[in-house]
Amino acid sequence: MAEALLEIAGLVKRFGGLLATDNLHLAVRAGEIHAVIGPNGAGKTTLVAQLQGELKPDAGTIRFAGADVTRLKPHQRAVRGIARSFQITSIFPDMSALDNVALAVQAHAGHSFGMWRSAATEAALRTPALAALEQVGLAERGHSVAAHLAHGEQRQLELAMALATRPQLLLLDEPMAGMGKEDAERMVRLIGGLKGSHTVLLVEHDMDAVFALADQITVLVYGRVLATGTPAAIRANAEVRRAYLGDEVAP
Amino acid sequence: MVIDPQLLAFQALNGLQLGVMLFLMAAGLTLVFGIMNLINLAHGSLYMVGAYFAATLQGWSGSFVLAALLAIPATLVLGVAVELVVLRTLYDRDHLDQVLATFGLILFFNEAVRIVWGPSALFMTTPDFLSGQVALPFGIIYPSYRFAIIAVGLAVALFLYGLISHTRVGMLIRAGASNRAMVGALGVDVKFLYTAVFALGTALAGIAGLMAGPILSVESGMGEPILILTFVVIVIGGIGSIRGAFMGALLIGVVDTLGRSFLPGLLRATFNPQVANAAGPALASMLIYILMALVLAFRPQGLFPARAA
Amino acid sequence: MTATSRRIVLRALVLWGGLALLLVLPPAAALADQPFYLTLVTRMLIFAIAALSLDLILGYGAMVSFGHAAYLGVGAYAVGILAYHGVNAAWIQWPVAIVASALVAALIGLVSLRTSGVYFIMITLAFAQMLYFLGISLKIYGGDDGLTINARTDFGGVIDLASNVVLYYLVLAVLLGFLLLGQRLIASRFGMVIRGAKSNERRMRALGFPTVRYRLVAFVIAGTMCGVAGVLLANLTNFTSPAYMHWTRSGELMVMVILGGMGSLIGPIFGAFALLALEEVLSSYTQHWQFILGPVLILIVLFAKRGIYGLLGAARESAAAGPPAAGPPHG
């Protein structure tokens, strides 16, 4: 078994009296798409926020690529290769789509204290940014102001920004949220295309998408891991069916 | 250097007196901010207008009590008028807009009082029944009027505590400070609640202005120095928190007063007189800002933040 | 001609025409025997520098600094105190003023940038007030009354600042230099980070930017530029005083930025000219001009947020999104 890229051990997060993350253990191997599912309030977004560094866990450790990152700040983790897309689209609405992605490239292309040369003419930023836009199918929309893009396009843009940072680990928090059928299918194809080249931790409610994409699935309930396994194993797991999936979802 | 304990007690009381004045200002400002999300620079103008009303009424009637009874409602009416005409349109604006528009209000009010009352300062006298001294334990003699300020300030603090923790209005205020959307959901007339809260804040500023009248000169622009001190109080105490405003106000009042009276002397005891004479007053005037910086270094949300987030 | 292209032509006319007017103003004022206008416009240009520096952080970085006049005072006091001790040489005065304002901005920025939103506004205001009181407590340097400066900065005969005309051109050159610098800065990598942090700070951190560090550098740059404006102001008035740091001065700088149009560097220049001209005109009619200015300000905030330069149809690249966000809460 390959060494895990991401290893979470004994993670605990409390909000007042509520245990949002309850002694959670989880490992994600390099190159796999690992889906995290669970009912609302299971602590999925809280988990993502702790992995990215916006929330500090109360206990436990997060190891990433062999190093303990539990105490690192979001920007430090981003530099080490953890990229996140947010449940609610998080882009730079007043900038062009290309500028959005170029800024993502810039985050990982040396320091940004250059104050004289125009960033808009720097090939080192623009070329990879265009490539990332192309990868998600937004090449034509590069010069549109991000706020004017359709909802589905904005989600694609956010994915392009995450990809442009050349991450080792992508944390995707409900990338299909609020999408129509067509957009969602395109997003599934996009994420599927990352298999093998990227490691993805995917939080998603759309079960069709999860079972189509995931190599591994972890089911969270009340901040605890109920089960982890291949899609087939999860589907067959009686406890999971009872607690969450329900009979109508499983075929 | 030996610090005379009686002088120390006297100055500590002065600090307390400044503290309760700051609390009256900070309580209104922090409520308005916590509930309406409005940063109101013109809060100092209401304090100034309160002092002008009181000084004028005392001049006419010769009675401090009558002046107090009329000046506070008059200030309140003016404050509500300002809320209805200008501030109400600012609740949904960003903080920059609020700052600029209320800055415009300050310019307006500072000039308006010059037009109405002329450029020179007005003076109020302490009422006869408070013109003497009170004898406190340990042989401390303290002016009755200043002692009365402390008493009124503490009484208002108690009243606010009771209002906010034990009444339905207080419940709404607390709910508003932590979750604005919820108040609307409770079926409360939000506009009315806002006006009421603003009126309460105005009344507190009016009381502060009235009480400051006899110890300061009543003049145009008198509201802003205390406004900026009040900001320091709120930053230290935590925005939106009455308890924070109270603790912050007393802390700032005492530190500022004691710093100004004893720091130069303490420096003289340690350094040579020339250095001490130059640096003492400078350091004393910077003390509370340094304190603010220290608090922020460890507690960016202030000592008693109203919201956990 | 379409409305858009008409506006572009109009804007170019205003900009280049304005620059031409500024260039010929000193001889024109001399011909008309109106030296007052030279002083007035020099003053406008100096405040344009200060407003431009504030716009760098306010308009592009959403850092609502309500204490920007502090640096005006630091720059002016650097000149005044050195001159008081007989040091007039430019090669000492300018570096000292620049280092001092950068240092003060760094200290204020270090504390205030730990917070955001309304805290930031109050803290920057409080620190400026602290410096104001510090100025008052410096009795040997005039305290409340201020400090008269006997001689202007000495450039060793290269530039003779004793002449008001030379001073005028120096001020204009500094303004144009800062304008160029600012334009480059905003379009650079650094500028992109500052604008990104204004637009969506959370996203910036998720991308890997330590935003506070970049903000601090921008804050220091703006403070330093304003310090230079202070140096020039002290030279113009031959005087420095705590009044330069008064909180109303900081408020006026913000008004200039908004009045001119936030989020373009040209805007604040228009704003500085407009506000000072308005003050000049109003005060010639009545001593109570602030009674009129106050409500005018409120009306501008409520109804004319795009500012003068915005009315000229300036392309407001990133500013299309309008007012700065109050900044997301930290932590």
Describe this structure in words.
The complex is a heterotrimer of chains A (251), B (309) and C (331). Chain A is of the alpha/beta class and 251 residues long. Chain A contains nine helices and ten strands. Helix content of chain A is 36%, strand content 25%. In chain A, strands 6-7-8-3-9-10 form a six-stranded mixed beta sheet, with helices on both faces. In chain A, strands 2-1-4-5 form a four-stranded antiparallel beta sheet, with helices on one face. In chain A, strand 4 (59-64) and strand 5 (67-68) form a beta hairpin. In chain A, helix 4 (123-135) crosses helix 5 (151-164). Chain A is globular, with a radius of gyration of 18 Å. Chain A starts with a strand and ends with a helix. By secondary structure, chain B is mainly α. Chain B has two domains: 29-124 and 142-221, no CATH class; 222-309, no CATH class. Chain B is 74% helix and 3% strand. Chain B starts with a helix and ends in an 11-residue tail after the last helix. Chain C is built from 13 helices and two strands, in the order αααααβααααβαααα. Chain C has helices at residues 3-31, 35-58, 69-84, 90-112, 117-137, 164-187, 189-199, 201-207, 211-237, 247-260, 266-285, 289-303, 307-311, and strands at 147-148, 239-240. Chain C has a two-stranded antiparallel sheet with strand order 1-2. Chains in contact: A-C, B-C. At the B-C interface, helix 4, helix 9 and helix 11 of B face helix 5, helix 10 and helix 12 of C.
Q: How many beta-strand segments of chain B? A: 2
Shape of chain B: globular
Which series of helices and strands of chain A comes N to C? EEEHEEHEHHHEHEHEEHH
The number of helical runs of chain A is: 9
Q: Indicate the multimeric state.
A: heterotrimer
How does the major sheet of chain A shape up?
6 strands, mixed
What's the alpha carbon Rg of chain A, rounded to whole Å?
18 Å
Low-pLDDT runs of 5+ residues of chain B are none
- Main β-sheet of chain B: number of strands, strand sense, barrel status? 2 strands, antiparallel
Cα Rg of chain B:
20 Å
Percent range of helical residues of chain B: over 70%
Tell me the β content of chain B: under 5%
Q: Any key phrases for this structure?
A:
heterotrimer, A: 251 residues, Rossmann fold, 2 domains, six-stranded mixed β-sheet, B: 309 residues, mainly alpha, two-stranded antiparallel ribbon, 74% helix, globular
